[in-house]
Amino acid sequence: MKLRVLGCSGGIGGGAQTTAMLLDDDVLIDAGTGVGNLSIEEMIKIDHIFVTHAHLDHVACIPFLVDTVGSLRTKPLIVHAIEATLIVLQEHLFNWHLWPDFTKIPDTVSPYMCYDTILPEQAIDLNGRKIIPLPANHTVPAVGYQLDSGHASLVFSGDTSTHDAFWSIVNKIGNLKYLIIESAFCNQKRDIAIRSKHLCPSLLIEELEKLECEAEILISHLKPGEADITMDEIRQCLARFNPKRLENNQLFEF
Questions:
Q1: What's the total number of domains in the chain?
Q2: d(CA 6, CA 245)
Q3: Whether 133 contacts 82, CB under 8 Å
Q4: Is there a cis peptide before residue 201, judged by omega within 30 degrees of 0?
Q5: Nearest residue to 72 (alpha-carbon basis) of 108, 112, 101
Q6: Domain membership of residue 142 as a residue range
Q7: What's the whole-model pTM score?
Q8: Would 254 be classed as within a structural domain?
Q9: Separation between Cα atoms, residue 172 and residue 216, nearest integer Å
Q10: Per-residue pLDDT reduced to its tens digit, 191-237
């Protein structure tokens, strides 16, 4: 399996793009503004989108993606998410007011898009590739994902805060190779991080102390205006984990 980072920022500007990652050439993990980095030819190949949660920075490009390539495809693009997330997309995005309902275009028999309800901890098998939703703790119902090739796994926390249930599952992954975890705020904004159910460096170190296995740690969702400050704080308090900043166009093979 190969995972290419299209966007991994907590905002936009100066080249920053919000969360979207391309698994092999046919699966998106979230569909933030980073999807705009793909060519039309690459977009046509995408058959699946696995959404962590309904916030705009993670779903903003689903409407544009389907609008751009829906008529160029021979089958519907499948949006996979937990029920609460799909309800938000149906009621507040693809509702004919903010955007057309592409589950009914050109008709309900052969739509450009369809939905698939997933459940936490229940694996979806895509030709031998396992995608497993993991519990997350955010202001709206959310999940992270384990991507398991059989040889190794990559875990993406999605947007989350302190959550022991996440670590109880991660610690049982015998082939864990990469852990992508967020830190949306610097320590000065710890109170905002807590209220918005994100992590900051001081909260992140508390969470990583729960990790019982070895993995390469990568930090996502940094705010463009304070990314350097946040990473400096992370390196100071998490030096033994050797964390690295997740970057656009990084490619992970596992």
A1: 1
A2: 14
A3: yes
A4: no
A5: 112
A6: 2-249
A7: 0.97
A8: no
A9: 16
A10: 999 999 999 999 999 999 999 999 999 999 999 999 999 999 999 99
